[in-house]
Amino acid sequence: MATRRTERVSALLQEAIAEQIARGIKDPRVAGVTVTGVDASPDLRQAAVYYRVLGDETDRARAQGGLARAAGYIQSVVGRELRLRYTPSLRFVFDPTLDVASRVDALLAGTASPEGDDSLDG
Known about the structure:
The protein is α+β, with helices and mostly antiparallel strands. The protein is 51% helix and 18% strand. The chain has a 3-stranded mixed sheet with strand order 1-2-3.
């Protein structure tokens, strides 16, 4: 269970990391990366950074490589900005939420009745 402090630090980390990716990283592999969330551990020593990137598997793999390479730099800059006692080590994780949601929508659309709501009559 996340405490209020953990949630607050996670939100601050998300904002600072997104800012660094957008403005501080010159690597073209991370262009178009969107930070969708940060989940910090209760002791604030580690943080999973969830991200999305437009494109296919190749673009996703390139972005993962660019983020992994820039993780140390991002961590140091964010640590200075937020002035935390311990800066969490960052682990970048692709966020599949939109893919799962679109798959569920497609499955639900496939099970919908072609007649619409008229199928409830009988």
